[in-house]
Amino acid sequence: MTTRLTFKKIITGASFALALVLVQGCATAPATSTEAVRQIDPLEPFNRAVFKFNDGLDQAVIKPVAVAYTEVTPTMVRKGVTNFFGNINDIWSLVNNLLQAKGVAATDTLFRVSVNTFWGIGGLFDVASEMQIPKHSADFGMTLGYYGMASGPYLVLPLLGPSTIRDAFGRAVDSQGDVAGNLNDVALRNSLTGVRVVNLRSRFLDAGDALEQAALDKYSFTRDIYLQRRKSLIGREQPVVEERFDLPAPATTSPAAQ
Predict the structure, then answer these.
(1) How many domains is the chain partitioned into structurally?
(2) Which residues form the signal peptide (predicted)?
(3) Which pTM was predicted?
């Protein structure tokens, strides 16, 4: 498949971003709870305004479409769509695992992409998971954090949602490594983007409803969960298990830690 992406563009962008780590100062020491909130979220008025806009758009457009998609699309088809985009994401995870010098994770990811692409019919079937090949999700924001770059202030991006200054820059590089998002065929590229967004939102319908009912301040709850999760992923060696909110949860005999 012909794309606008070139290996030189990825390496150039990655090298520039990693160079920023050399001039990035260490994160400040923990402060009191009130001071800590001000430090991690100094842009709160702006962030809340963007969060309100994103939430309104989601409630008015994205969520209804995701609900309709879930109702009319068989579970097997939705699972295949999730697997397809997961396989595409694994390609960029491979690059980031290599940048982080994680040999085992990179090897596992290479095997996952190879197996799922050839034996899983382009990734529609997750054969690699059936073969117990672990998944190591990684993005460029994680790569920057792995090399010591502080996250910077919390930032809510229009349409894209929760982020930080570091992760926002990482997303810009990630966009250059997205195979589906760099297709020359505009119609196909836009169609894949739309399906990806709707499918992803459909997987979080139950979680979103629970958040609506449980969170006294949805903005603060979302911010804290995002920051805690991102912090836990930096330098993490164990596989990152992709949750399937559109499928029944498997039975377990012990508590699962993410």
Answers:
(1) 1
(2) 1-29
(3) 0.76
